[in-house]
């Protein structure tokens, strides 16, 4: 009787852990492919702050944001060479 409860509890915990990691991986890949801020949104935000953004400045900010996201994801995945 106790063995069934123990097996059920272990399966439940394994399912929760597996589901968490699968959902986390899915969201990371989704946000990498569909970033929450694009150039148009950045341009609108700068215009609302009273700045006249040039294309060069927008490109610099986008590259800085991309480097930051790569840096955050790069900490977890180190390449062995």
Outline the structure in words.
Keywords: Membrane, Transmembrane, Transmembrane helix. Its main location: membrane. Pfam families: UPF0154. The chain crosses the membrane at residues 6-23. Belongs to the UPF0154 family. The chain has 81 residues and is mainly α. The chain folds into two domains: 1-34; 37-80, no CATH class. Helix content is 79%, strand content 0%. The protein is built from three helices and no strands. The protein has helices at residues 2-33, 39-48, 55-76. It starts with a helix and ends in a 5-residue tail after the last helix. The mean pLDDT is 86.
Keywords:
81 residues; membrane; transmembrane helix; transmembrane; 2 domains; rod-shaped; mainly alpha; UPF0154 protein; 79% helix
Tally of helical runs:
3
Rg of Cα set: 21 Å
Helix content: over 70%
Strand content: under 5%
Total individual domains: 2
pLDDT averaged over residues:
86
Biggest beta sheet summary: none
Determine the structural class based on helices, strands and strand pairing: mainly alpha
The total strand number stands at 0
Question: What oligomeric state best describes the polypeptide chains here?
Answer: single chain
Poorly predicted tracts of residues: none
H/E element sequence: HHH
Distance between the termini: 52 Å
What's the overall geometry? rod-shaped
